[in-house]
Amino acid sequence: MRTFQLWFTVLLLLTAYPVWAKGLLDDIHSAGRETPKEIQPHRQSTMQEVLLNAVSLKGVHYRYGGTSPETGFDCSGFVRYVFREAANISLPHNARAISQIGNMIAPDQLQPGDLVFYNTMKSAFSHVGIYLGNNRFIHAPSSGGGIRVVDMDDAYWSKRFDGARRIMDIY
User: Fold this and answer.
1) Residue 27 — pLDDT band, cuts 50, 70, 90?
2) Which residues pair with 62 in a beta bridge?
3) pLDDT by residue (tens digit) across 28-86?
4) Does 139 qualify as catalytic in the annotation?
5) Of 29, 42, 61, 127, which residue is the catalytic one?
6) Given 29, 42, 93, 139, which residue is catalytic?
7) For residue 41, how many other CB atoms are within 10 A of its CB?
8) Is 93 a catalytic residue?
9) Which of 40, 79, 99, 154 could bond to 125 as cystine, CB 3.0-4.6 Å?
């Protein structure tokens, strides 16, 4: 039922916002493209739900401490919401606390659904996003609008990268 609701939401968004619809479809397509064959079917299905849920929230505005699509999200609120809704996984309340769970992974081992962490406030692990594949991640930036997809190789992000974690393996 949840899959139907997510697809219905995506289709509704595509109809309501045709200007960014192509980008949303591109994000969904590229997110699933790097899914390794050795991932167990249940984990792969859950990971796809996470990615679909994340990209369906693209454009929702930023709000410090925000935890819902209605009021807006900050980075950890966005990640927590996506994993709670799509995978029934309850995560801690801030990026630093989230960075303490799961398995640390090397950048060349990233898979869609992994969490990526950045130093954006002169403090390690102060920002978190969800890796989509193709060296891109989705996050709730504190400036410049709402939830969006960015390239990890952008100068701003590449010099602030703190590490990555895979939490899907522990749940």
Assistant:
1) low
2) 73
3) 455 544 444 454 555 678 999 999 999 999 999 999 999 999 999 999 999 999 999 99
4) yes
5) 127
6) 139
7) 7
8) no
9) 99
SS3 15: helix
Q: How many domains does the chain have?
A: 1
Domain residues for the domain of 22 are 2-170
Supply the pLDDT for residue 14: 42
**Length reported for the chain:** 171
Asked if 51 and 34 touch (Cβ cutoff 8 Å), the reply is no
- Phi and psi dihedrals of 131, rounded to 5? -70, 130
pLDDT tens-place string over residues 72-90: 999 999 999 999 999 999 9
CATH number where 149 lies: 3.90.1720.10
**Which of 29, 61, 75, 93 is the catalytic position?**
75
Q: How far is CA 150 from CA 63, 88, 117, in A?
A: 19, 26, 13
Tokens of 68: 């819902």
| Gap between the Cα atoms of 129 and 149, Å rounded | 9
Active site residue 127: yes
Interior/surface letters 44-76, b for 16+ CB within 10 angstroms, e for the rest: bebbbbbbbbbbbbbebebbeebbebeebbbbb
Q: How far apart are alpha carbons 53 and 94 in whole angstroms?
A: 20
Give dist(CA 141, CA 61) in Å, integer.
Answer: 9
Structure tokens at 112: 């869609």
pTM: 0.78
